[in-house]
Amino acid sequence: MPAAPGGPRLLLRRLREAMAEPVGPQARLDRIVVLIASNMVAEVCSVYVLRDDGNLELFATEGLNREAVHLTTMRAGEGLVGLIAATAEPLSLSDAQSHPAFSYRPETGEEVYHAFLGVPLLRAGNTLGVLVVQNRTYRVYSEEEIEALQTTAMVLAEMIASGELQALSPGTVSASRRALSQCGVALADGVGLGHVVLHEPRIVVRNLIAENVEREVSRLDTAIAEVRSAIDDLVERGDVAGAGEHREVLETVRMFAHDQGWLRRMREAVLSGLTAEAAVERVQSDNRARMLRQSDPYLRERLHDLDDLANRLLRQLVGREGIGPSAMPENAILVARSMGPAALLDYDRSRLRGVVLEEGGPTSHIAIVARALGIPAVGEVANATALVESGDGIIVDGGTGEVQIRPGPEIEAAYAEKARLRARRQEQYRSLRDVPAVTRDGVAVALQLNAGLIVDLSHLAETGAQGVGLFRTELQFMVAERMPSAAEQQILYETVFDAVGDLPVTIRTLDIGGDKVLPYMKALEEENPALGWRAIRIGLDRPGLLRMQLRALLKAARGRPLKIMFPMVATVDEFVQAKRIVEREKAHLTRHGYPLPSECRLGVMVEVPSLLFQMDEIAAEADFLSVGSNDLMQFLFAVDRENRQVANRFDPLSAAALRAFRLIAERANAAGTPATVCGEIGGRPLEAMALIGLGFRALSMSPASIGPIKAMVLGIDAGAVAEFLDRELARNRDGASLRPALAAFAEEHGVPI
């Protein structure tokens, strides 16, 4: 088969010369496709560029009809070129027209060409276009040719990203300088106004081809050693006060720095002829392209830690430091594609006013650290880094998930006033800290916290919460590089008991599976992981894991009251089995002379709809119930709450949902079994008002929600809300949401919602 006569090194040198010529962008691109075709011994070379509207446009070709340039377009996923753009994977075919994705475009004249090789134009994992070579013969392109075309694609991707091609087609124009409003996912509450600081502005790797492979391997190994040492120093420094869990987050970053698969792929790339920095960029970009197409949110979030390390490695190789305090404005808003927690701790937090991320959900490591530091943060803001430039004015609303880019004076003034009002409201809420949460007609409502980290427990005193209604134990497991031992678990639980003092705390046993995959456990391939092997099902099938956690809890309580809650219980029998395991562990500790808790109450999280038809039995068997409204709603309505296409198709204030909640409250109250709502709706004033009207007398929520919920409780008459709901539910026949009616009721009665 033909071989590239000059090799990638000669081609890159010629490409650099072509890009330096004083000609227009179209002439330069036309020259580039000729050079690539000649070097690859190809009869056709074409460049397709991804436009802002999501379509791919033919920008230059050697071999196809020139009249098709800027005329031929296709959607991502359409045709072979669209398939490459959608998958971000190279595609090599000896007979392109026999492939089911082949799309015939008569204006190009490509029907006479059979052999096809296309590679994505990737920049930092994002697909910017597709580079294609074709031949008339039915031939197979070699691995060396695919590698050479991918290396060439790296150079073209930089040309596209530079904006040089914008004048050639209006569809390629990037975000203008106009004001933009974007909406993402709220990660950490608060409002921040400031100016954009791009997190680690991308290092452009210009030297791609290694002159001395052995030297490049040595440079890579040295840089890896330096980065590992820096991470070790960061872990030992311990910037976050009281940071037992935060230290484990950073330990996970350190684990990635020693991942042998990642290091092997970079060394292999160097041995193929790339420089050390080009090898890092290639592996990083390939990883991103694959991981961004993963549906598992946990896997996507773990990519952030790997990205952080790759960026550190690139800086080490090119000798560039990160942004220092002197380079940051006084009111910096970090904007990043993604960040690892270690990267956030590198910044001067006295100047940091907020964080905006293209990726990262509420359970990501970066969100955990941002909340601990009190920095407003918003995640999942699409294309954020491409929409801003360093120094742009920007506003972050970590409560609503809104981001205002280059806001006008009116918007800026409105958010500045919102920040002032929020500060005043927070002061008002703080003034309610010691006021009992009692309705106007004398109904006491217990307001408790949801927590998962030791740092969350510091909010007990500042909010006046009456305890912890839900302590999630899985976070300790998710941020560790290995399964925490029984002794390590016991230390955590002892710290929890010490932090809450005499206040009650409900500790939920390990709720893993579904989207919560432990990095050191083999993930199961399940069609519907949310409905699969998770939570109590794992505990009962692997009793050793559950017993170890229960023993650690029982030891940690040591004469103090203990409340244990089991998640994802679907039948009464499952709860009975779990109770037997607790009794066996208590008997074991008694035999060995360990002090037991002063009392041990066992409860069930009501989140599987099957329990709605066993309420009398489960209420009689359990010491308490906690309603996990998040999962209960998604299971009840068959709606994946992580799926944006359907997540808003149901309302927890719909008649069906409210009747389900009323059933739980009525049966629990009839049995004398305390019932708490610990899902997200308990922290939203309008929904919380409805829950109180339905009969719930305990709600658990995030720390930021305590103040607003207490203000609402103090402003309502529980009996009037109950009567209103009874009337509305009795006449509701179409299952419509009661949200508008409840909002009108609250306004009419002066309830702060």
Characteristic key phrases:
753 residues, alpha/beta, 8-stranded mixed beta sheet, 8-stranded parallel beta sheet
Describe this entry's structure for a reader.
Belongs to the PEP-utilizing enzyme family. Its main location: cytoplasm. It holds the Pfam family PEP-utilizers. Its EC number is 2.7.3.9. It comes from Methylobacterium indicum. With 753 residues, this protein is of the alpha/beta class. The protein contains 26 helices and 22 strands. An eight-stranded mixed beta sheet has the order 7-14-13-9-10-11-12-8. Strands 21-20-19-18-17-16-15-22 form an eight-stranded parallel beta sheet. Strand 11 (352-357), helix 11 and strand 12 (377-379) form a beta-alpha-beta unit. Helix 1 packs parallel to helix 4. The longest helix has 25 residues, at 213-237. The chain is elongated. It starts with 6 loop residues before the first helix and ends in a 5-residue tail after the last helix. Residues 1-5, 239-245 and 322-326 have low confidence and may be disordered.
